[in-house]
């Protein structure tokens, strides 16, 4: 249960997964190590971490595709979590859009007319206009992913889990996928977004970072990228308590006024995990290193513009040539 008494959308308790890697003793790999977390209905959670940290294994556990060696995973009663994976081809069974939709919704016993109207609505949602008998093989990789997303949404799931769903897409289609997911989230859908792109993670309500199968960070994007987040005690890369680095990792990047404008930025969880900071955060750090005051913890270009405007004393804003 959450503090509000409403059961979480998804709850993991000590979720642990060992994969067997051979037949002898000691031939297993621990992909997840005691993950405990709750995700609330309607949250937008970005799941990040270095290669091999356990993100896809956690995704499979959440989708009910990977059994736990220990612990448990509970989905809210009546909730439906639908996955959209990096390779749409691995999820598609039908030869055409029409066939795939019929297969996706076979258990609902709908008429041909109902399926047609659903198909049109689903494709419209992702901005595609394609004949129903278009073979998947005739679609580009980006179109396939959009169709895959449309089919997932056509089931009206209460949650969507996207595992590197934009990794193979060109920037235009990636933006389209992000916009469709953002709209679904605004309409109340829970979103779990696995990504290596920190710009995408910055748009989430909450970032959970994994390292070596454990939760290394769980907090806001601002805290993840700028420091001062609530770090998990499971953080495996933090040096022993008492070392200067450990103290620094739990320090705050904010000044007394909360702006963070003039303090040196401590190393953030994002940097410690060797993940690339979003471009805007890199820019803020570079400006501060050069002695420029930038207020707040902007994550997006528009926020940076506001921060810079707020930081420049009145009358000194215009550059003269
Ligand atoms: N089927 C499997 N059999 C054995 N080991 C596995 C299997 N699947 C994953 N692993 C191991 O579990 C660990 C976590 O893998 P996982 O794919 O979940 O990480 P990831 O964070 O998604 O990585 P990436 O970012 O590279 O996709 C890795 O050490 C991986 O080698």
UniProtKB/TrEMBL annotation:
One of its GO terms (molecular function) is ATP binding. The keyword Transport applies. Residues 246-267 are annotated as: Disordered. InterPro entries: AAA+_ATPase, ABC_transporter-like_ATP-bd, ABC_transporter-like_CS, ABC_transpr_CbiO/EcfA_su, ECF_ABC_transporter_ATP-bd, P-loop_NTPase. The keyword Membrane applies. It is found in: Cell membrane. Pfam families: ABC_tran. SUPFAM superfamilies: P-loop containing nucleoside triphosphate hydrolases. It comes from the Bacteria. PROSITE patterns: ABC_TRANSPORTER_1, ABC_TRANSPORTER_2. It is a peripheral membrane protein. Keywords: ATP-binding, Cell membrane, Membrane, Nucleotide-binding, Translocase, Transport. Residues 12-237 form the ABC transporter domain. Belongs to the ABC transporter superfamily. This is ATP-binding cassette domain-containing protein. It comes from Paenibacillus filicis.
């Amino acid at each position: 249960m959450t503090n509000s008494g409403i059961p979480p959308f998804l709850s993991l308790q000590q979720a642990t997964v060992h994969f067997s890697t051979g037949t002898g003793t000691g031939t297993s790999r621990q992909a997840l190590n005691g993950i405990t977390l709750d995700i609330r209905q309607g949250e937008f959670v970005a799941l990040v971490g270095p290669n091999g940290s356990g993100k896809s294994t956690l995704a499979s556990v959440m989708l009910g595709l990977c059994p736990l060696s220990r612990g448990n995973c509970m989905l809210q009663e009546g909730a439906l979590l639908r996955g959209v994976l990096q390779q749409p081809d691995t999820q598609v069974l039908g030869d055409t859009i029409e066939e795939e939709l019929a297969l996706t919704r076979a258990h609902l016993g709908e008429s041909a007319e109902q399926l047609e109207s659903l198909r049109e609505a689903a494709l419209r949602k992702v901005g595609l206009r394609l004949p129903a008998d278009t073979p998947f093989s005739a679609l580009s990789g980006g179109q396939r992913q959009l169709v895959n997303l449309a089919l997932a949404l056509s089931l009206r799931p209460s949650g969507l889990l996207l595992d590197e769903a934009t990794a193979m897409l060109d920037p235009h289609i990636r933006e389209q996928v992000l916009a469709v997911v953002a709209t679904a989230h605004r309409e109340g859908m829970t979103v779990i977004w696995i990504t290596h792109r920190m710009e995408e993670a910055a748009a989430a309500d909450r970032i959970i970072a994994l390292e070596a199968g454990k939760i290394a960070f769980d907090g806001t994007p601002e805290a993840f990228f700028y420091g001062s987040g609530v770090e998990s005690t499971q953080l495996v890369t933090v040096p022993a308590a008492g070392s200067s680095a450990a103290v620094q990792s739990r320090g705050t990047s904010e000044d007394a006024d909360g702006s963070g404008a003039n303090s040196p930025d401590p190393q953030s969880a994002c940097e410690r995990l060797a993940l690339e900071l979003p471009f805007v955060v890199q820019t803020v750090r570079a400006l501060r290193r050069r002695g420029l005051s930038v207020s707040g913890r902007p994550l997006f270009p528009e926020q940076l513009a506001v921060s810079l405007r707020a930081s420049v004393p009145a009358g000194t804003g215009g550059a003269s040539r």
